[in-house]
């Protein structure tokens, strides 16, 4: 069984909407392109390393349309080799509509998204989910991912679609590698999904070695 990785750029308040440009997802969002001023060589190298071995893309409709309008027109070797990679591997599109699938290697998933994603996981070693916030919400809710690669940028926007929106299922994750920061303050976090749900405790319990709260009254 292969791995499904979510690749996500977010702000400190975990807004993930339209990092790449003003026209990417402008609905009700005035900060499209917020990531561009914060890109640097360290972050770009981290992104390139994260895509090593990728053999399939899983995309939502909006992200697919953006990619399909850009990557097929790029020359091989441009953009750090991403054009060659993205144009050569299978692309799976989660959409309720009828997207234009003229980009070579593109397939629209059927109505049973969970079953389709499980089939992709069985078919490919390393599948990447890029952007696609609506699709990501489904993957989080259904626990249909293995690793989350999260680049947290040192800005707060206060508006926009969040990485973890309402309906996200309580889950445990484990840190797979030490956090890595760029000179501009972007922190790269790598998490893996683990079993179970979060547990709770009492920080004032005697065995924690913490003072008891004074009783009032």
UniProtKB/TrEMBL annotation:
InterPro entries on file: DHFR-like_dom_sf, RibDG_C
Lineage top rank: taxon: Bacteria
A Pfam cross-reference name: RibD_C
Lineage of the organism: Bacteria, Bacillati, Actinomycetota, Actinomycetes, Kitasatosporales
Domain Bacterial bifunctional deaminase-reductase C-terminal span(s) in chain numbering: 7-175
Protein name: Dihydrofolate reductase family protein
Disordered as annotated region, ranges: 198-217
């Amino acid at each position: 069984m292969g791995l499904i990785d979510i690749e996500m750029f977010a702000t400190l308040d975990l807004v993930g909407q339209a990092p790449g440009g003003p026209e990417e997802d402008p609905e009700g969002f005035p900060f499209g392109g917020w990531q561009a001023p914060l890109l640097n060589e360290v972050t770009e190298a981290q992104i390139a390393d994260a895509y090593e071995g990728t053999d399939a893309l899983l995309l939502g409709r909006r992200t697919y349309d953006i990619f399909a309008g850009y990557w097929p027109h790029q020359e091989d070797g441009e953009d750090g080799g991403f054009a060659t990679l993205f144009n050569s591997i299978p692309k799976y599109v989660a959409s309720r509509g009828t997207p234009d699938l003229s980009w070579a290697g593109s397939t629209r998933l059927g109505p049973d998204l969970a079953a389709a994603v499980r089939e992709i996981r069985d078919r490919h070693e390393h599948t990447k989910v890029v952007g696609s916030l609506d699709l990501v919400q489904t993957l989080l809710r259904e626990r249909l991912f293995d690793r989350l690669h999260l680049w947290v940028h040192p800005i707060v926007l206060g508006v926009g679609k969040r990485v973890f929106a309402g309906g996200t299922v309580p889950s445990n994750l484990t840190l797979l590698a030490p956090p890595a920061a760029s000179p501009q303050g972007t922190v790269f976090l790598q998490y893996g999904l683990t079993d179970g749900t979060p547990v709770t405790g009492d920080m004032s319990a005697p065995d924690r070695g913490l003072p008891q709260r004074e009783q009032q009254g």
